[in-house]
Amino acid sequence: MSSITQAPPKHPAMITFSVMLASLLYSIDWTIAAIALPHMQGTFSATQDQTGWVITSYIVASAIAMPTCGWLSTRFGRKRVFQCALGGFLVASVFCGAARTLELEVMSRIVQGLSGAFLIPLSHAIILDTYPPHEQGRAMALWGTGSVMGSFLGPTLGGYITEYSSWQYVFYLNIPFGLIAMLGIAGFVPETERDKKHPLDWFGFLTLALGIGAFQLMLDRGGRQDWFESTEILLEAGLSILGIYLFVVHSLTTRKPFLDPRLVAERNFFIGLLFVFLYGLLTVPPIVLMPPFLQDVRGFPIDSVGLLQAPRGFGLLTAMIVGGRLTGRIDSRILIAFGLLCIALAGLEMSSWNDSVGTWPLVWTNFIQGVGGGIILVPIQAIAFPSLAPQRRTEAAAVFNLVRSVGASIGVSTALALFVHGTSVGRAQLTEHVTRYNEAMRYAADASTWDMATTAGLAHIERTVDHQAALLGYTNDFWLLSMAAFAGLPLLLLLGKQKRSPLPLDPVEAA
Asked: Which of 239, 257, 275 is the last residue of a domain?
């Protein structure tokens, strides 16, 4: 990525504010839409796994576009790319709010993800070029805090907006703040030099996009299409394998590949990719599962759902700050193990919930999950990046974020598919006991409401069975996520003892 002129830019505070605001909007949109998913189901007459595309399409589109960030900023100029990306993000936000079909909503979210993918890496680079080396740590701390704030501002804002207005305004919220950021960038951010002859490996980019896109579509559609009994799923699986195969072969044989395969040969970087994939797999699905659980099973109003999600963000921010100070002083394996155990133990507790779970268990488990996710982010980077040459770190950061996004997308799609399967199995098991010969139904205190001879009784039984089947689907997902966190602990054996440093790493590098 090219750099700006040698003279320090004027108005660094306004530059920081503008790019931090843009980054905040992107990070908010990772989580704010999750709160509105139950309401989207009604608007689009869609199932829960179908509305999950609203989340996964955004994540996958961001993952596909992010690796092109360096080439675009070198080819067209960093400021110009940032403005176009933010403009596309805002236009897509309008279409997201105005959509009246699920198909249009998903297409709008894809465009929003493609545009927003550049905001975080470009704002990161702008901050580094705006301040001299001795001030970069403080500037990055401020920028990173603003980026992380989206993880807990999103659910809280989304809850209130959806409850007191409509879910469409969770997207319209981007417009006024985005325009403020756009004006600040236009007025204060300097442009970089352009290299009009800088090439892009189009074949590598398109084959990678085909492989990831087809794989994600297979995961999203598989549950409804009976997986490999469906011609569509077989076709998508074939396209995914073909795309990844062509990408790998091409990357190994071309002189200037889209992503350098030699990065994976770096042992520590490869281990870091394994952990960041696991991070995405474990931390994003609960954000998507919790809002419908709290609203549909537990019965909270949507504004309370947003507030109950906030402890996760506070835990994440607290843990990132603490983790940044401890990394380099405490063995990274200890911090990662602690984070995985937090996620695993919270998931175990969640797997034991019923439909009358109290507020306190909801608060502390969300907080502990946030702590678990935040505490491992910085040490993962401390493992992955120091062994790389400085000129390779921009491309490595793109690969790092790509793998994290793919892990998150796979986690969400798999969790929703398992939820649908678990709910179906649970319903089948529960209906086996719905019989006029079941003494529990015949002699219940309110037996009249369970009377199978009346329409009202059958309707009540139907609602109860669906309610309990959904509860089983959620708790099964929480248990599986917990087991996946425990399964990640043996990966720590791949790591050697980490060198200690007298200075803590910047806690926001992973933001």
From this structure: 257
Would you state the torsion angle of the CA atoms of residues 269, 130, 137, 84, taken in this order, to the nearest 10 degrees? -50
Dihedral of CA atoms 89, 94, 99, 104 in degrees, nearest 10, equals -30
Within this chain, do residues 2 and 45 fall inside the same structural domain, yes or no? Answer: yes
Contact status, residue 464 vs residue 472, Cβ threshold 8 Å: no
Q: For residue range 260-275, list pLDDT tens digits in order.
A: 788 787 888 888 888 9
Is the same domain home to 179 and 281?
no
Report the range of poorest mean pLDDT among 77-86, 284-293, 359-368. Answer: 284-293
Cα–Cα separations (whole angstroms), residue 382 to 202, 301, 388: 32, 41, 11
Q: What is the CATH number of the domain that holds 150?
A: 1.20.1250.20
Q: How many domains, the chain?
A: 4
CA 165 to the chain's CA centroid: 25
Task: Provide the H-helix boundaries in 351-385.
Answer: 359-384
pLDDT for residue 145:
64
Please give the backbone phi and psi of residue 189, each rounded to the nearest 5 degrees, phi first: -80, 125
Query: How many C-beta atoms surround the C-beta of residue 299 within 10 A?
Result: 11
Residues 372, 503, single domain; the answer is yes
The CA distance from 209 to 65, in Å, is 9
Q: What domain range includes position 436? A: 424-477
Query: Which residue, 385, 369, 348, 332, is CA-closest to 491?
Result: 332
Tokens at residue 160, please? 């209130």
On whether residue 205 sits in a domain, the answer given is yes
Cα separation of 133 and 152, whole Å?
Answer: 30
Residue-wise pLDDT tens digits, 98-112:
988 888 988 999 999
16 found inside a domain: yes
Structure tokens at 412: 């969400």
At residue 503, the pLDDT reads: 38
Can you tell me the distance from the alpha carbon of 419 to that of 103, in angstroms, rounded to the nearest whole number? 22
Reported confidence tier of residue 407, pLDDT bands at 50, 70, 90: confident
Residue 195: inside a domain: no
Specify if 413 maps to a domain.
no
227 and 138 in one domain? no
CA dist., res. 313 & res. 283, Å (int): 11
DSSP 3-state assignment of 16?
helix
- Is residue 508 over pLDDT 60? no
Domain ends where: 210, 231, 257?
A: 257
